[in-house]
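Dear Dr. H.,

I hope your travels went smoothly. While you were away I took the liberty of generating a structure for the chain from your last submission, since the lab meeting agenda had it listed for discussion. I wanted you to have the full record in hand beforehand rather than looking at slides cold. The sequence, exactly as received, is reproduced here:
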Amino acid sequence: MRLIVLVLLALGVLAGDVAAYPEFQFSTGATRCAECHFAPMGGGLINAYGRDEAASTISEAGDGRFLHGAIELPEWIALGGDVRVAGLGKHVRDGTEAAVFPMQADLYARVANGTWSVQGTFGVLETIRKPGSFTERLGSREHYAMVEAEDKAWYARAGRFLPAFGLRMPDHTVYVRRYTGQHAFEESYGLGAGFAKGSWEVHATLMTPLELHPIVGRHGWGGALMVERFNEASTASVILQARSQRVGDTIENWTGGAYKRWIEDADIWVAAEIDVGMTRVPDAPVITRIAAYATASYRPGKKWGAALGAHAYDGDVRIVDNDRIALDTRFAWFPRAHLEVAALVRGAVLARELARGDVFGFLQLHYYL
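The corresponding predicted structure, in token form, is as follows:
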């Protein structure tokens, strides 16, 4: 197998959030994602505690506050942004493909009044192979109004967002995201609610067929439910989840679970997820699909971490030699607050045949404010 070597420069400026690496849960002492993020399931803008953790726990030094503390915003408003230039190289049977592109250019804003808040993302929705005009690439992939308890024991929100489901790895190409309706820009309009009490956390989402630009994926009436149970030491959790959505005459169901654990003595965070999908189409047999993922992340302390991941997906278990398997390695380095260097190399095979597989690499420099 020929080996692909990718060299790319990606610069992110005005970034209001570091991508929500799940391994920060438990390993940084935070039990729930909402302890560091404004969003109930993590991701997006980080709050004051999250900014402090970004500087004192995740990075070795620096000031994690907005604009490095140069501007003190009032408590009722939070601002940020995320601009990334990215590049990748991919080797397939037909040759080698390479691309350099602005991966993301988003602005974030959150306005709050007591327990009420409105927050959203607006930016350039860049594509790699088929870029449209600048105006066609403008849009908001996530925005919602939310009310929540002061202690974050419960919340309810309405707007556009991804339903609570699975590990929610920051890489949208992870198979358990890519093939279960949580790929890039697949956020749906809907209603969400949840509560956190003791060692339990529950999230429910009602999805609607409303579609506004950018329209990616399939949207229809549906629902999702996710239940997470933490252990007493707050070092591990078990997730059970299900979602169902109807688009036209097609009904798509996903049921699965996940497990996360921080092994403190070894500085290793492990996680696994498996989901079984059943697609029902009129006058046709039920299509059964399986998506699975497992990862182990090593974080020996501040500044850096490395991880290995394994993916599996079968789009129709009735079809022989239809499965796809991938292995990847990830690396992240946080030399100072607001700065991250990340790399990813992944190899995938189709039907266990190397000749039908591909290899791609990714390198990124990320700077957030």
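Two observations you may find useful: The first strand starts at residue 77 and ends at 92. Confidence is low (pLDDT under 50) at residues 1-19.

With kind regards,
E. W.
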